[in-house]
Write a structure and sequence with these properties.
mainly alpha; 10 helices; 80% helix; ExbB/TolQ_transport; protein transport; Biopolymer transporter ExbB
Length: 256
């Protein structure tokens, strides 16, 4: 796993692409085999009263796309959260516990230990490595402390950048819902003549498409925005704990 991919907490392109295609395929078969047949059955049975049925509300293509994107977005956020939880323990501990803080730090030995760790690409270890390298080059603790702040800011920026796909999906879902609204209103207007003649069933069904797509899209957006805020909170906590760990433990090793 490369460093940038770790810091952004993103799955690889192949994993993301495979999950994306799998989700869209499963949702398609679910709609084709269950939701749309159930909606048609309800509509044939109860007529216009069927517009309040959950099957009818979900049956259109816009809702199918929104639900597929929602599941993919949740996958990305759960993956990031799993990475955070998996590495949570290292954010607050001393990464060089075998080194006595009362004696000068063996810089080369410390760098070798940190670089050879299985967690060497994580934000905490990367920050420690960058700081110790700066200290090795300058022999100045203040320069090492400056490296901590620079590394932490870089981690925060990479985490923020790694959420771009999620933010785009959250933005795109309401837009897809509005596409369904425009499509439904357009179809309803095309049946205005029939409605003037007393047949309002077609116009009612088209307006149902318009409002249902927006309803589903906005409801999904509310859920995803909540999850996004929770993820951002976890990421911010990780960045803060990484900085505190460096300032509390790492600088103690460098002061002698």
């Amino acid at each position: 796993m490369n460093k940038n991919n770790t810091l952004s907490m993103n799955p690889s392109f192949l994993v993301s692409g495979g999950v994306f295609l799998l989700i869209f395929a499963v949702v398609h078969f679910l709609f084709a085999g269950l939701i749309r047949p159930a909606a048609e059955k309800v509509m044939a049975t109860v007529g216009t009263a069927s517009l309040s049925s959950i099957w009818v509300i979900l049956k259109d293509i816009e809702q199918q796309v929104c639900i597929s994107l929602m599941l993919f977005c949740i996958f990305l956020m759960v993956y990031k959260l799993w990475k955070l939880l998996d590495e949570e323990e290292i954010y607050s501990r001393d990464l060089l516990p075998e080194h006595d803080k009362d004696t000068p730090l063996d810089v080369d030995k410390a760098l070798n230990e940190l670089s050879s760790s299985s967690y060497s690409d994580t934000p905490a270890y990367s920050t420690w490595i960058n700081c110790i390298r700066r200290y090795k080059n300058t022999q100045n603790v203040q320069h090492a402390a400056d490296a901590i702040h620079a590394s932490v800011e870089n981690i925060a920026a990479q985490l923020e950048s790694g959420n771009n796909v999620i933010r785009y999906i959250i933005w795109a879902i309401p837009s897809i819902g509005f596409v369904g609204t425009v499509r439904g209103i357009g179809a309803a207007l095309a049946q205005a003549d029939a409605a003037l003649d007393g047949d309002i069933a077609g116009m009612t069904a088209s307006l149902g498409v318009a409002f249902n797509s927006t309803l589903v899209a906005l409801f999904i957006s509310l859920i995803l925005m909540l999850l996004m805020h929770l993820l951002n909170g976890r990421q911010d906590t990780m960045v803060i704990r990484t900085q505190e760990s460096c300032e509390h433990h790492l600088l103690s090793h460098l002061h002698h």
